[in-house]
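User: two proteins, same treatment. go.

Assistant:
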Amino acid sequence: MRGKYHLNFWEIRLRRYLKKISRSSGFQQINHWFIDHNLSTAPLRAAPLWIASALVGLMAVGYEKIFAWVEHAGMHWYQSHPYLIFITTPLCFCGAWLLTYYMAPSASGSGIPQLMAAVDLAETKAHWKVDKLLSIRIALVKVASNLVLLLGGGATGREGPTLQIAGSIFESIYRLIPITWNKVSQRVMIVTGGAAGLAAAFNTPLGGIVYVVEELTKAHLAVFRTAVLSSVIIAGMTSQFLLGPYLFLGFPKITRLPLEYIWLVVGIAFITGLAGSAFTKLLLLISALRKRFQGLSRQLLFVTGLGLLFAGIIYFSGIQAMGSGKELINQALFEGTQHIAWYAFPVRFIGNALSFSAGGAAGIFATSLSSGAMLSSFLLEYAITIPTQHHNLLILVGMIGFLTGVTRTPFTSAILVLEMTDRHSAIFYFLLAGIIANVAASLILRHSFYEIRKEEFLTQPA
């Protein structure tokens, strides 16, 4: 008979300690005080959620700081020794993959499919599989693998991995709660962790809430309402307390788009939606190709080949192929599309696919935004004639379109970009872009990359 959890030694000790606290006279007096004064026990039930949310906020801030430092270190190393990129990139690609291969296979990739699979497995007969998708060990390997990939110039983000790490923190807190504690359900903990992770990663609380409704669960929000809202607030406030009330993309200037140009919103959203779905198709094709390489040595050879290909892209295109692409987005929004090279989109598109397919921990949330921005910049510079004061709006529309094409979450994509820029006057354009892009993406693939990968995790043998 399988046990409920496979607890580590430190978890068993800590759980026993928490159990003693719950049985202590001081704790019992607090509990009776709530009952005697006819107060709800909700604060006691929600306490683990609040603790986990604060930890997620702290983690997100620390991860962001380390990620930025490693990203700039990798770029500086390349600029100082460009030829060495043909050694460092393949080595880092292999190192990132080997970390996940030997230490935590479920830490590979974005992390969002693992979180989605864990939500489906929670409170079912196969709930014990959640331990294989979310844990502190997986979270640590996730961070290490992602940073190694980034150090080698990998085109990756931290936002998707942050969601799996946040889910792991919430799941670990849930595992430590004594059985006698009146606690919330496992599914609520995992779903709330995803919302808190997204809110803390992008500083977008509404985006975290919408993502729960649109992607992580199809259940009615009432089931998760209080948990999600409170955790998003705590995680976001913790992040803001340490980093300040920053915007992920600043305050790009946007002017009102005349009605005769509305077709451009539809057109760019359609094209970028197709591109995002095509990117998903490319990831699936590389994954199918990789399955032909059986055995550790052949897999290592395949990953090395991906690293060499990406090193070639970096060498001939420069640092714009590296990292999350956030600086490129800011350059397009605040300096103009004329400063963006014509090849910025293809190198971001292909580079992200190669980096993700290496098998290490890699995010595609932020990189999808940068790909969408670069594709829009190319269209505005070489294919579309429109006054430059309208460029920023259409670049943001392209970001929403590409991200929607990958994730198939049009409303989340629109709300994320809205909160990243604080451009509430453009909300209707953003929502329209998400809907059009979702329709366009369905012409290539019916399901998102996350959904396809989620099914793989659900069906994989124990």
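Protein 2:
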Amino acid sequence: MRSDRLDFLRHDEDRLAHALPDWLSESERNAVLADWSLWARASQLPPPGDWRVWLIMAGRGFGKTRAGAEWVRMVAEGDHSARIALVASSLHEARSVMVEGESGLMAVSPPHLRPRYEPSLRRIVWPGGAQALLYSAAEAEALRGPQHSHAWCDEIAKWDDNQGQARRCWDNLMLGLRLGSAPQIVATTTPRAVPLVRRLVAQVGMDDDVVLTRGSTLENEANLPGRFIADVTREFGGTLLGRQELDGELIDDLPGALWTRGLIETCRDTGAVPAMTRVIVGVDPPASAEGDACGIVVCGLGDDGVARVLADASVEKASPERWARAVAETARAWSADRVVAEANQGGAMVGAVLRAANAMLPLRLVHATRGKTARAEPVAALYEAGRVRHAGFFARLEDELCGLLPGGTYQGPGRSPDRADACVWALTELMLGRAGEPRIWID
């Protein structure tokens, strides 16, 4: 049980460290500093009951990694015969996050109980004899033979599920979880509507085997930089992606949608972006200043032959002068080779407004003969083929993409998918050329 006397210090290790010497001996002080139950929120502690899987599905910054690492530490220190599997989307992430990360196993262990990490063997050994082995979810067959008593699976929604790979990895792990008297798995993840996560969530409440803990980013606000909270709230607040990434909600995909959350996640770059050989700014002008947003999306073709969504510079409720200036500034900032703008609303006026903002703007005006979703279908196919990636997170754009349905229907946020349409224009120009839109004229 957490002591009420220490609640006011729970989020401030320095204050606790300075306060404790007056109360306790040095050995008692070290024991208190290493006692996770004094620090953790209730949602970060193992739930009661005879569960087999504890699924922690929460927003970014909630403290999922710390909860997983502390649970593994508790198991290893309490059961010297424990054999623990540590599974991440890759061996690199298993090592950099689960073992060596700021909230990983090495960081949370007190010096006298810190395990020995043997990178060449992918193994961690605790002083008492418990062991953990590192696995990559991309190598499902590696889990076919080994036996374990416990497992910690991190960010299971990120595991590559091409041809059911993630689910095979999970199944192989479960089949090998046959050591000890009460095998258990902790799975920590940001929610995404991928098959493995859906399967586990569906099992919650059916029996006591799967227990679910939900949580939001703001629950851990005391331990997060104020600037981070302000930035993510401004960028993602009020979006479906924000509800997923911050609030920890599992957002269901629309049946038959051209884009799904899972598809976009498989197409997301988190590392360095290659050099661009061509950059296009797609523009979907608003019908009026009081109406929808002016979609302004930057896409580039990498020297690896893959297109990337680079930026969403869209502006809302802007006058023609303001959105035209935003287009010109975006084109200049990204050294765009061309600006592609839809001319259905206003025709030549669109070109005149854009050229007034910058007479030298490399502009192509396009006239749409098909609906937004019809134009989007060949672009969605590029995502399916792995020919388009997102260089970062674009919450409002991605919400709109996931609202596009075949047959001309849009069920996403807002009245119109302006950002999505701008993105489609840019990617069509980059990857499909004139074949993507039959009636194109140049101003």
